Amino acid sequence: MTTSLLLAQLLNGLQYGVLLFLLAAGLTLVFGIMSFVNLAHGSLYMLGAYAFAVVGTQTDSFLLGVLAAVVTGVVVGFVLEKVAVSKLYQRDHLDHVLATFGLVMFFNEVVRMIWGPQAVFVSLPEYLSGTIEIFGFSYPTYRFLIIAVGLLVAIGSQWLIHKTRVGMLIRAGSVNPSMVGALGVNIRFLNAMLFALGAALAALAGAMAGPILSVQSGMGEPVLITTLVVIVIGGIGSVHGALYASLIVGVADTLGRSYLPMFLRQVADRDIANAAGPALASMLIYLLMAIILVVRPQGLFPAHKEK
Amino acid sequence: MDFLRQPNKFIAALFFFALAFIPTIAVAIDDNFLIVFLARVVIYAIAATALNIALGFGGLVSLGHALFIGLGMYSVALPANLGITDGWIQLAICIFSCALVGAVTGAVSLRTSGIAFIMITLAFAQMGYFVFVSLKQFGGDDGMAVVAASDFFGFKLSTATSVYYCALSLLFVLTVWIDKLRQSPFGMTLRAGRQNARRVSSVGLALRNYQLTAYVLSAVVCGLAGMLLANLSAYASPSSMSWVVSGDLIVMVVLGGMGTVLGPIAGAFLFLGIEEILKAFTDNWMAIFGLLIVAIAMLGKAGVVGWLESFGQNKSLQMNPDAMVETRESA
User: Fold this and answer.
1) Complex ipTM, two decimals?
2) pLDDT tens-digit profile of B54-77?
3) Domain range holding B140?
4) B264 vs chain A: nearest CA distance in angstroms?
């Protein structure tokens, strides 16, 4: 248990956390403001990863790949909102679950039809595949890039929501959408843009995760469920809550996976530790969620104080 | 004539009667696939009926019921691997574990409602999935074979036919019981709470206790379906806990008609039937099926039974989904 290992694991956790934040930021707004349950958010992440893999490999350009992912996210998100999602806002949550569950099946199968069931591998350009030396140990450049992008998006979203007119409308819309509409704001267009923005962030997350995870059909669902945990912990509809919760979950999960089995081996019998360690580590973030819910059902950083 | 006043019950009785002869027909035409397929359908009908207690009656949108199917499957597979094939012991393990897990996760989940409830039930099911994936000594990702079938006083669930009869009997008993439960004070309170929680509470009923009981009941019955499924497939794997299974169950309940007695059964038959037909036409059946589910969601959710009932005499008793949404939103 050296400090450099701990530092590396902390950075890994941070990197995982900001990736979760990219997904959670858009999703928590859709949940909080439109009160819409979007299980297809993971599909947008998957589509982003594929767009990145295809365009990035064809053009041999990392930046074009990322751009393609973001554009794909915006376009698919916008179309999805117009065609299906906007028709369901007035319905109850069960209809949202059903419709987006169907969409997940559809997107997963379409991707499998086009690119097959095998994972698509993406290689990094040379300037990103190296490592950077800090505090006497080396850490991959690309993971630093993910952290930087995630933090930039976090700052950008804070600025958008708290300092701009659009952000003011978004916050107003989350409290009373019909009042905002009555004041002459095109709330439906605002919703569509917000949905597309969330989709773009999800696609960006997919693109960033592409080179370090395998790009394949169904890749969106495990990360979607972790994102849901993040949103529940952070408080539904709260972007800064999503940021803190993403970092907490990212770091807790990463550290739990590397240190819990090690720690158990010291206090318990080796066989029991080997059996229980990984199981306990995979339960960690869900237990964290359960404990937080028992203490604060509305999440750690709720968007509205009282509803 | 009594059955004319209750056409649903008459159709249901005919349906169960016909199903009882399936194994005889399957043997006559030498079609083992038919019996295995229908056994699976009946088992899913049990699971959908179980989910309907929480979802249809209680309005609790649980996206995590696959967890209990998985627990049921492992309560057959794990003891069997240790040499315990006594079905009653396995049943006790199944009921105990499902009730315990259901009570704990239900108590935590019910502290929230709406979107958060959906997400938390999903997260708990995913937790179960990951726990069994990481338990390498129980097969991990690959799951484990059920080395010997459950043995109930010599009645062994070792063939598809025996599982089929067991599942069908259970489904029949369950249906009769659900019909009673729906009209009982417990069922009435639960359904009233779905329409307007605040009013039920102000009458002085502790709605959350009712909801938790419904959740635990539905968990245990789902576990029974899992036990049967483990015997049918002679296998238990974490993939049975995947969230897709939970989603499938919701689709079955809604497709058939949530809150009705026979809806989930109709839903299971329709869902797995459509799936099988689409599979015969194309390998990429999931793309078509996915869009079908989207269409079902967009069209509203009276379900097949609700739709049939709108032609029947008991129109006034039929639930009106739109009215329900309005009352909930005004609450």
Assistant:
1) 0.85
2) 998 988 989 889 999 999 999 998
3) 2-330
4) 15
